[in-house]
Amino acid sequence: MKIPVLYQIERFIRRFIKRNCNEEKISLETLESISTNSYEYWDNRYLINENSGPGSYNHLAEFKAKVLNDFVAKENIQTVFEMGCGDGNQLKYAKYPLYLGTDVSKKAVSLCKSKFQTDTNKTFLCVNGGNHDNIYDFIKADMSISLDVLYHLVEDNIFEDYICSLFKTSKKWVVVYSSNYDDSSFSGEKFKHVRHRLFSKYIEENIKDFEFVEEIKNEFPQDTTANFYFYKKKGCE
Prior knowledge:
seven-stranded mixed β-sheet; 2 domains; 36% helix; alpha/beta; disordered N terminus; 237 residues
């Protein structure tokens, strides 16, 4: 149950965003200043008709798709789960036999459903701010993927829950595409939507049933610090 005061604040923010969307473009800086957490920022971002960001478009999207499509073919992967599907533009480049994507934004999920409405091999689900958390107990895929998500999870508890759920859903492979270093400039004093973390250390210390296999460097380091990191469940051939 929502606390009434917080619910009223949430409704006000949504009305503010929708009104400004109609009148003039609200800036990402303004959006950041009125958002209080990662879930809210991304939900609001899609409400103002912003996209998933440059990593999901053009040459970066094509690079990511090539790496993943080659891996899916090589490993004969049949089911793919993506935690944070965004607006679906990255997915347009994908060649996955069967796909499930979740996102915290209803608008993002709606965009994906619209883009892929004739593709019966793709399913999308909104999982917002802790709602339907137990759904991850029932999702099992050959490969679970996280693309350009981890460095947007600025809160420790959200980051830790996300990592736990991501690995929980995989039967064999987990693929993370993210930066992988600690951002010493992050203070947490006010909300920012980017926080770089040495996530591999957290996984090594807390996810004991998977092992690190390979890192694939990005072909465009001038545009992003994100690389691919592949993890395999122990005991799998």
